Fold this protein.
Amino acid sequence: MGKGILFDKDGTLFEFGPIWLQATLEFLAAVDARTQDNEQVKIALGMVDGELLSDSALTSGTPGDVAAILVEYHAFATTDEAEQFVKAFFYEFLVQHLDNVKPVGDLIGLLTRLKAEGYYLGIATSDETNSTMATLKYAKVAELFDFIATADEYPTKPNP
């Protein structure tokens, strides 16, 4: 039996703080254009008085969670349409701002040392596969992971 370490991605391996608020504000502006209940949908998504709630759909939910709220507030007719919008918006934003995504510390050095010590390395994230892989490839660490659990392929955290 081998030993392994399962990492969270955002905030553990990568610092997303600088771009996350910008992405969220731009996303909410895009949603504003699609709904009459602008303030109510923002609150439902987790933006209250200009602050993001830590346990909201936007901060810890999946694109499906966000999509369900968008449909509830009539920003989209179907959950599939809303979910595609959410995924595309955040993926495109990430790709345009990858240079602002910073590894926390010497990520290549840390992961290389752990692999040399015989650890299997994994990630569990609420993000989708395409954005996760874009981030890992940009940081040049994708090949160091043995297991990657994303929200579109596995049950979301904290599901064991």
